[in-house]
User: What shape does this take?
Amino acid sequence: MNQPLIYPLQWNAAQKAGFRFFFVYFILYVFPFPFGHLPGSNTLFEYYSDAWNTLVPWVGRAVLQLPYEITVFPNGSGDTTFNYVQLLCFVVLALVASVIWSVLDRNRANYNTLLYWLVVFLRYYLAFTMFTYGFAKIFKTQFPFPNLTRLMQPYGQSSPMGLAWTFMGYSTAYNWFTGLGEIIGGGLLLFRRTTALGAIILIATIGNIVAINFCFDVPVKLYSSNLLLMTLFVLTAEGKRLINVLLLNRPAPALDLTPFRTTRRWRIGRLAIKTVIIGLALYSHIFDGFSTMKQYGDLAPKPPLYGLYEVESFALNGDTLAPILTDTTRWRQVIVAGYRNYPSLTVRLMTDSLRRYVFEPDTVKLNAVVYARFDTAHKYRLAYQRPDTNTLIMKGLFRKDSIYARLKRQNPERFLLVNRGFHWINEYPFNR
Assistant: This one.
């Protein structure tokens, strides 16, 4: 009978050097996980973030001598200059620490126990991260259905990232498919016996995410690539066994992933703690998913005046403007979109250029405050009237001009992307 394999008792120099580097690098990259989830940790880690916010610009200025100052700090983009310089700092710190570690600990035969705990650490980090992204797809809050503004935007004016978001947002079923891949893969990582299967699923899932991020210029390239790197590292423990089974057609005995023996009481206590942690994580993601879905999802309440409007007549400073396609001031369409708590107004001019604004309607006073998102110093108040359900009149001072616009509601169901639906049978390709 084949005996379970264990980690090798003697590591070669390359294995030990590589482990030391990746141990330090991964700890630096994922920190403050898991401490950031502890109550009262926010203040402590604000100091940690402030330290990096000071160090990274200094490295960019004094060490790398970048031609510009780093003033953009971590935000919705994960591929800022700050992120690249910080990643370089992680690599340099990991190299320096691994060299010092190698000198001080050069006689150690192996790092089996430390490897075990590093893999456990990465398994939980990847699992909880995949839960975050997976449930965001299940509840369809990461990729909602294309809004009215997106439906009115010509393909040629869409950014590559916007095109990817439209592609993903169109199909609820595809969101569920990709989300379940992330959740199932992450869930399997939480158990030692299914770690390899979970890692294989996530390599395919995260690999697809990395490809989309690079091919559609989505600014999460660094983060997704590091998630893929962590998944590959987790799978290396089973590398030889998988090569034997999948490539060499050889038998592969089971791998004993536990570097130490434990008592029954310890195992029961560990199982109880693990159950609580996983239960709380699932509850948190499901609760947040339902909550977020009610605010941003496809079923979230729409704002007042929501709809797509064609401009029937438009007057500027008392002069009625004819709908001439070269006019850069006359409105052609108005789109009120977004959600009840986050409404937006987009004006499409006769030249097809779009101007987007924050829209704050007051249904009692029948007026609305309109302003550019990053220009709160200039706010405009427009009065509106609803003569009937399909007509909207807006008037007031807007950007130093007096405007009057009579709008006619359009039916969004007229868009092919909205009304085409799913067909089991297609006698001919329907590629429009």
